[in-house]
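Quick start: what a row looks like.
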Amino acid sequence: MLGPKKYRKQLLELGIEGMEVDVSTIDIAMDTLNQMNEMEKILTKIRYNVRADIRRIRLEYVTKLKEVDQSANVKKGLFSKKPSVSKLTEQKKKLTRERNLTIATYDVVENTIDDYLDQIEKSRYYIKNSIQRRVG
């Protein structure tokens, strides 16, 4: 499982942010189209991995929440009592907040990927129209 920072680094290395669409000639337009197709494949793979990480995080926190529930029925020592309901509720809230914050960082990466994929689709449409105008 990669972290959100690693995914953002991968996105930066793709070079989508500063990429300019050049359609000055048909050959250059076709090369740009091929580059965009390749970037789209990579972005789709990264998005798949991000979603898989989010699923893993959710499962991890479901397990943690179950452990908190199970700890409600267990006494810690001979003379100790069960944890209070308010303490258990607070632990669950803390875990839920932690999970939501962790997932939110991945959601930002996923939204960035979706934006890039939309930009690629719009650029692809522009390039294809440019090629069709030149070819006739």
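That is the whole record. The mean pLDDT is 89. The radius of gyration is 24 Å.
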